[in-house]
Every structure is written in structure tokens, then in C-alpha cells.
Amino acid sequence: MDIDNLLVTLASIHEFGIKTNEILSKEEFSQSVVDAACSIIHSDLSSLMLTNENDELYIIASKGLSKKLREETKLKIGEGVAGRVVASGEYIFVENIETDARFLKSSHVEKYISKSFISIPLKVKNKVIGVLNINSSKNKKYFDDRDLKLITILADQAAMRLENIDMFNNLQAFYLEMIQALVGAIDAKDSYTHGHSTRAKKYAGEIATKISMPQTIKKNIEYAAIMHDIGKIGVPDSVLLKKDKLTSEEVKVIRQHPSIGYNIISPIRFLSAIAPMILYHHEWYNGAGYPEGLAKEEIPLGARIIAVIDAYDAMTSDRPYRKALSVKDAVEQLKQGAGKQFDPKIVDIFVKILKEEKILN
Prior knowledge:
Elements: H1 3-19, H2 26-41, E1 46-51, E2 56-63, H3 67-72, E3 74-76, H4 80-88, E4 92-94, E5 117-124, E6 127-135, H5 145-189, H6 196-210, H7 215-227, H8 237-240, H9 248-254, H10 257-265, H11 275-279, H12 301-315, H13 327-337, H14 344-356
Antiparallel strand pairs: 1-2, 1-6, 2-3, 4-5, 5-6
């Protein structure tokens, strides 16, 4: 291959790194690696395998393999070609899978168009976390040094990104646990609102599903529903738990909780998308809410969903100053507020959910 084509290929690998930098799903990223490998080698057959907690290799992404083969393939460390690559930390080239004793034979072997392939370790600090397998192209029955070097560069890049995804997801889980602990502390303060965040998450997810929101956005709305009252951690108990009517000054204090919640959540990168939902969940559809008096579609959809759920849960829960309303009466209040306090479309969807779940007759 001439130098110009080599530079183009290297540029493609660099572009792959930039394009996939924001991907936080191991499955999605792994598929991108497989697709890039096939593009570099001009192959139609590749797979990426990772190790699991049982010291087994499994296929997380592939191209050209049947669903059955993907699901059935499991290798112990040291077993088969890929298992040996993990054990040794060195790549293995197989010239012919039909005659190579290291390749585990199966009924699927004859279905491989190309009989030669290379298995390259995915290494992070001398630890092998998986392998990248790729068969030679239909028109090229062998791998040259250029192929090996390019795929090795891709594999090294993939290994680092997969490790970073794991670290990020672990950090994400840690933050969520900490925040849910804070939310739990708020719930525990007030027996009247205990379980409020859990119910809010449930209904937020159901509404998002009805609207056919993408899974990522649905998850963000669920997170926002759990955390929408986190700002109350900064509200004095004397105000938060007061049984009598609040004074005008105390109303100002409690109305600060969306802003306090926003300030807690917004610095956390992976939660920054839900911060506006928390900030604006007390805005009114007609613009009469707080903190900024937003109206209609100016209010984030997640915030409009939480507004309906929050009001319903508050109305159907006992309060120090009143008993809980019946579901029927609470729904009537939501309907009366549709177009004023609440997004009418969200109210309609929520009422349908209550009917489907036999909560409302």
C-alpha cells in the first residue's frame, strides 16, 4: 500500500477515536470498533470479545456472524484461539481455521467465507480485557505487516476506551448512589412524603414510554424524577416540616429548592442534562410558575412530566394540614389545571396510565 493510502487509513482511525469519544455504552462502542476493523481490512467478518466475571470470553459485538453463533460462543481463558490470546497477551494468526488445531471446531466453521483470521489482545496496563478477531477479506487470503499494525493501533485505542467507559460507569453508579442516599434522607425527614421519589420515577418512566421517548432521554427523565426535590436538603426543617401555613418569607425559602437542586446536580457532568428539569419542575404551563416564569414548550419536557406527577403525588398523600385527596378528586384537579399549571397532553397521558393500571375507575 502506498504512503497516501496509509495516511488516509491512519486518519480514519484518528477520526474513529473522535467520533466515538462520547459513546458511554460498551455494546455501542464495541460495535463501532468491529465496524472500523472491517473497514480497515475490507473484511465482512469480525468480532470483539470481552472477559466476564466467570473468566469467560463472550462476543459483545460482531459483523457477519449469526445471532446463534454470537449467543452460543463462550470460551474459557486459555481455550481456543481467543482464549490463548488472553492467556498469553500476544496476537495469534490462524492461516486456516479448518486445519488449525488451536481453533475450536464447531458446526459453524464451514460457514466462514474466509478461513484465515487474526486475534489481537485488548490490553490495559498489561492486563488483557478481551480480543479483537478479524478475518481476512474475500480478495486477500493473508494479512501483511500493515494490516497487523493498523489493527493493533485500533485494538489499543479500543482497550483504553473500554477501560475508561468502565471507570466512568462505576463513577456514575457511585454518584447515583450518593444522590439517592441524599434523596432518601429527604424522604426520611417527612413521613408524609416517604416514597415520593420512587413513585415519581415509576410514573415518569411510564409517561416517557407512552410518548416513545428514546431510552437515554427516558432514563434522564427518571433520574430527574428521583432527584427533583434534592434541593430541599438546603431548606431548614423549621420550614420544610412546618404544620401551619407558611409565611410569605417561608414561601420564598421553600421556593429556592429547585435552584438549590440545580446547583447540586449541574456540576456533575453525566447528570447535567437533567439539571434543567430539576430547576423548572415548578414552572406553570401558562407562565405563572417559578423560578423564571417559563411557559409551554419553553419548559423542558421532563420538567412538565415531573410537574404533573409531583402534584398528583402531593394531592394523594396526607399532609400535616389536610388529609389525602382521593385519586378521583386529584385527577379532577389535574384536569382543571391542564393548560394552566400543567401540560394538557401530559395530563391526558397520565390519566390513561392510571386507568390502565386500574388505579382510576
